[in-house]
From TrEMBL:
GO BP of this protein: protein deubiquitination
UniProt signal peptide: none
Protein name listed in UniProt: Ubl carboxyl-terminal hydrolase 18
GO molecular function annotations of the record: cysteine-type deubiquitinase activity
Gene3D superfamilies per record: Cysteine proteinases (3.90.70.10)
């Protein structure tokens, strides 16, 4: 079961006075408290690289998460006007300890779905291809500040956690902070193999490679003394970004390929409310470059300015919680900008 639990207002009907389909985007009914999974499914559906891989798969699996995910995503691609059927997928998640009658954390469910695909899909080559769509490869760095001994390794993340500071912030600042080397002293000292004991250290990450779809998790929920609160602080994010222009050379491995740095925003998972009473929706970008807003069974086309309203800054506002960026070939950035 997920480690974090929150009560929710998802049971309330939040449907807007519009249809359940808009220009290729089908809505999803809210069963119990399924708004979190609904929002994630919309982001998966807008990730056509994932849809194409699953559509070309000839499954022999039975009662598996990847099988029911495939069925749900293919149903969402059809031209029918009513909400897409996805209850079998919800029940399959429920059998794998992701209960849709309990409010979940979207990033935790996202990671759990990707891990369950890896575990349950019989075609391991395809499972690895799907995970590689989101896999960030980094070099880990740990240096003893006394003897200067350095340990390095390689780690993988499917979602980069972005720490939010208690003031106006930007996604670019969050990324720079994540890759900034941190000193570990006092109770945070690390064991040094050369010294044979815990010593003050410096640790950090260096980026080796980025995936076709980059997921960034804005860590808006903070636990303190057994109490979870939501950070409503403003965090701006761009429609297009260039990683190599954001990070310093210190944050990039020698193996990093500069031409893989350009990205365009393709989906935003949004949380409204607070830690104990919330609701998930999604903004997704279709192949026609237009933005759409999916609130369970209701969908409608919106402007980029509407997406920007999720920066946060007020408890009354919806706040972006997960950002998904798609790698864009060089020279194509302008086509992906809404202006």
């Amino acid at each position: 079961m997920m480690s974090r639990r929150m009560f929710s207002m998802c049971g309330r009907s939040w449907s807007l006075p519009i249809g359940s389909r808009s220009q290729g985007l089908r809505g999803l009914r809210n069963y119990g408290l399924s708004c979190c999974v609904n929002a994630l499914l919309q982001s998966f559906s807008a990730t056509w690289e994932l849809v194409d891989l699953l559509e070309g798969w000839n499954p022999v699996d039975k009662e598996s998460v990847p099988l029911y995910l495939r069925k749900a995503l293919l149903a969402m691609q059809s031209d029918q006007s009513q909400p897409a059927p996805h209850r079998d997928f919800l029940h399959c998640l429920d059998r794998n300890d992701i209960c849709f009658y309990v409010q979940q954390d979207a990033d935790e469910v996202f990671l759990s779905i990707l891990n369950l695909i890896q575990q349950q899909m019989s075609d391991k080559v395809l499972a690895q291809e799907i995970q590689s769509l989101y896999k960030v490869t980094m070099e880990t760095y740990l240096q003893c500040l006394e003897c200067k001994y350095i340990e390095t390794g390689t780690s993988f993340l499917l979602s980069l956690p972005m720490h939010i500071r208690e003031s106006h912030d930007s996604l670019e600042d969050c990324m720079r902070f994540f890759f900034k080397h941190q000193e570990l002293r006092d109770g945070d000292k690390c064991y040094c193999e050369r010294c044979g004991e815990k010593k003050p250290s410096q640790q950090g990450f260096k980026l080796i490679s980025l995936p076709p779809v980059l997921c960034l998790h804005l860590k808006r929920f903070r636990n303190s003394h057994g109490y979870t609160r939501k950070l409503h602080y403003k965090v701006t994010f761009p429609e297009t970004l260039n990683i190599s222009e954001i990070l310093t050379a210190e944050a990039l491995s020698e193996r990093y390929v500069q031409s893989d740095s350009q990205y365009s925003l393709c989906a935003v998972i949004v949380h409204s409310g607070d830690a104990m009473f919330g609701h998930y929706t999604a903004y997704v970008r279709q192949k026609n470059q237009s933005w759409y807003y999916a609130n369970d069974s209701s969908v409608r086309q919106v402007s980029w300015k509407k997406v920007q309203n999720t920066y946060g800054g007020s408890q009354r506002e919806d706040t972006a919680y997960m950002l998904l960026y798609r790698r864009t070939p060089e020279g194509k950035q302008q086509e992906w900008s809404s202006g």
